[in-house]
C-alpha cells in the first residue's frame, strides 16, 4: 500500500506542484489549503507523513499550531516544515515543536523527494530488527545509516535529518575538510553559509549535551569543517 | 572662525567694563590728587607772595653771572664738629659730601656753618702726598712746591685773598693768608691735616666774620718739589662764586609758617636751601583702618604710581634739584606726587617761585603727607566704586558665561547632529530639543530631518530582506513547476527552454539569498555565542583558503610582531567579515595583483587592514560605502547588490568595532578596529 502524505499549503500552485511530484513518486497525497480542513481529515485518519507550511493564508502561525496538535495526537508521525521563512528563529521554533525537518522552499523537488524517502526509510528501519552491517564507527561515534541514528559514547544524539547528513558527511572521512558546498550537497539542501554555521553550532550543542568534553568538529576558517577522531 | 571663538571675542568686549571701572578710579584719583595739589599750591603761592617782603633776606643778585654748581654751600650744622681731620663727628651723612674729580681720584669736601664758624672738610685722593717745608709752606711761583688746599676768599671788588693749608707733617697746621698785603699766619683758624691711605684729609674751622661773600676751594697736587703740579677747584673760571647758606631771617619767616604735617623749604634761584622747617612727622598719622587690606591692594594696582618717596627728601648736599623745584625756579609753580614706601602714605609737593617785579629771588617748596589712595578717604566714594566694580565684574562674568553656554549648546547640537547623521539607525533625541528659543527650533527641525532620514534608511535596510521573503514563494512556484515540467515528455527544444528557465530561476534564488544575508547576520549577531580567541590564527587559516579560492591574486599576510590579537566574538562571523573585504578587494583589483592583509594591535584595539591596488574610492559615495544596497562596482556586475560591505559593517558593529575605508597610494584600504579582549576574560 502506498504511503500517504498530507500537504498543508495555502499557495495553490505550489500545493499542486508538490502533489504532482509526490504522486509521480508513487505516494498517495492529500492536499489541504488550511489548518481546519486538515485537522478534520486527520481526526478520522492520520497520514504517514505531513508536509506543513507555517504561514497559512491569514493564519500566520497556523503551521506551528498544526504541528503542535498533530504531535500531541501522534508522537511518532513524521512532520516536515516546508516554508518560505528562512529565519533562524523560525527554524529553531519548528524543530523544537517536534518537527523532523525544517526545509525552506528553495529546496528542489528531487531533494525534497530524497528527504521524504530517507525519512520513510528511517521509519521502516526502526520497525525492523537491527542488522548491524549498516553501521559506521569512528572512535566514540557510531552512525546507523539505516535508522539514521547517531550515538556518541553509546548514547543516542537526537539529530534532525539535515543534521544527520552533515555529521554523516563529516565523519565518513575523518580529518578531511568538507567545504560548505560539499556539506550542502550531502544534506541535500540549499543552505547559505550562515545556515551551515548555525547547523554546525546546533550539532555541537547536541553532542555537548551528551558529552561536555566534545570537540570533534573543527572549524577550518575560510574553508569548512572537519571531523577529528579521538584516536590520539 | 568658529561661533565659539566669535562669541568669545564678543564677550571679551565685556572686559571693557572692568577696564572702564579702572579708568574711572584712575580719573577720580587724579582729580582728587589735583585738587590736593591745587590746595597746597595756593598756600605755596601765598607764602611766596608773603616772602617778597623779605627780598632783602635773600642773597643779593650777583654782579657777574655764575653757575649754581660753582657755589659753596654752608650746611646748617646742629652741633660743632671737633676739628680733628675726621668727618664722622659731623652731624651729616656722607651723602652731604660734594666731589671734584682729581688726578688720583675723587676729592670730597663739605662746608658747614655753626655758631659763627665755617667748618671745612676736604678728603683728597693723592697717591703721593708731598709735604711742605719752610720754603714751600707759603704758595709761590717758584720751587719748591708742596701739596696744599687753598680757600679763595673774596668780596668783589674789595677783597681777594687765599688761605693756604699746607702741612710739614700730619697734625695741627698753621694756615697762611696771602693777599695784596703779603703773607700772614692765621692763628685764629684751627686746622688739622691727617694722612689716610692713598691721600690726606684736612679739616678747618674759620671764623665767619673773617671771610668775605665769595668762597672757593682749590687743591694743588704736586708730584715733585721742584715742579708746579696741577690744581683742581670747586668753581670754574678764575673767581669763586658767592657763598650761600641758611639765611636766619628767612629761617625765622619759615618757622612762622610751619604747621604740623607740613615741610617748608625756601631756596635761592640756584636751588640752594636758604631755610627749611620739617614738621612732616608731627602731622596726624593717616588713618587706614577703615579700609580693608585687599581693597587697598586692588586700588594700588589700579592707580598711577607717583615718584618714589625717597626723592621727596631734602637734598643732603643742600641743593634742591627735583624737577618740580627746577620748574618753579624757572618761574612756573609746579607740583609732584611722591609715593609712600609703606604703601599707605604719600607726599604731595608743590613749588612756587618767589618773584618781585620780574626778578626771581628763589622758590618756596611745600610738602604735605597724605593718603596714597585719596579715593579711599571718602567712604561714600569707596562704596560707590565697590558696588560699581562688583556690578561690572558680574555683568562681564555673566556675558562671558552666557556666551560660553550658548556656544556650548550649539556645539553640542552640532556634534550630536553630526553623529546622529552618521548613525541614522538611532534617531537620537538631540540636545536642546526642549528649549523654546531658536536653538530649540533648530534642534527640533534637525531631529525631524534626521528621523525622516533614519526612517528612509531603515526602509532601505529592510527592503532587501522583505523583498527576498516575498519573492521566495513565487520563485518556489516557478522552480517546482519547472521541475515537474522536466518529468513530462519534452522534445529537445522544450528541454533547452526549461533548462534556461531553470538557470534564470537559480540565479534569482542566489540573489534572494544574498539579499536576506544581511538580516540573517543581524539575527545571528543577536544570539551568537561569543568566545575569546586569537584573531591572527583565524585570519592566517582563512588566508590559506583565499589562496585556493582566488589563485590569480597574491595574498600578503603581515602580522605585527608582538601584536596581541585576542578578541571576543564569533570567529565565523569575523571571518565572514574578512570574506567580504577580501571579496571586495579581489573585485577591484586585477589579475596578479597583491591583496595585503595586515594585523596590528593598538592599546585596547586590534586593527585589521585589507588593502588592494585599484581605483580610488568615488568621492561622492564615500559616506555611504557601508550602507545597504550601495554599490560602486563597475556596471558589468549586475548581480551585485551592494550588501557585502553592509554585512561587514554589521559584523564590525556587532563586535563593538568599527570599519573604515580610505584611499592609499594607488589603491584602497579597509580598516577594521575591534576591541581587544580584556586580560583574564576567557569565558
- The helix/strand order of chain A is EHEHEHEHEHEEEEHEHHEE
Number of helices, counting only DSSP H or I runs of 4 residues or more of chain B: 11
Strand content of chain B: 25-35%
- The number of domains of chain A is 2
Neighbour order of strands in the largest sheet of chain A = 2-1-3-4-5
Globular, elongated, flat, extended or rod-shaped: what is the shape of chain B?
Answer: elongated
Structure overview:
- The complex is a heterodimer of chains A (232) and B (683).
- Chain A is an alpha/beta fold and 232 residues long.
- Chain A folds into 2 domains: 4-126, Response regulator (Rossmann fold); 131-227, Winged helix-like DNA-binding domain superfamily/Winged helix DNA-binding domain (Arc Repressor Mutant, subunit A), CATH 1.10.10.
- Helix content of chain A is 43%, strand content 21%.
- Chain A has 8 helices and 12 strands.
- In chain A, the strands form 3 sheets. Chain A has a 5-stranded parallel beta sheet with strand order 2-1-3-4-5, sandwiched between helices. In chain A, strands 6-7-8-9 form a 4-stranded antiparallel beta sheet, covered by helices on one side.
- In chain A, β1, α1 and β2 form a beta-alpha-beta unit.
- In chain A, α6 packs across α7 and α6 (161-172) packs across α8.
- Chain A is globular.
- Chain A starts with a strand and ends in a 5-residue tail after the last strand.
- The model of chain A has no long low-confidence stretch (mean pLDDT 83).
- By secondary structure, chain B is α+β, with helices and mostly antiparallel strands.
- Chain B folds into 4 domains: 18-59 and 247-380, 2-Layer Sandwich (Beta-Lactamase), CATH 3.30.450.20; 68-245, Sandwich (Immunoglobulin-like), CATH 2.60.40; 438-520, Helix Hairpins, CATH 1.10.287; 528-675, Heat Shock Protein 90, CATH 3.30.565.
- In chain B, α8 runs parallel beside α11.
- The longest helix of chain B is centred in the C-terminal third of the chain and has 49 residues, at 438-486.
- The radius of gyration of chain B is 53 Å and the shape is elongated.
- The model of chain B has no long low-confidence stretch (mean pLDDT 83).
- The chains are: A alpha/beta (232), B alpha+beta (683).
- Chains A and B meet through α1 and α8 of A and α7, α8, α9 and α10 of B.
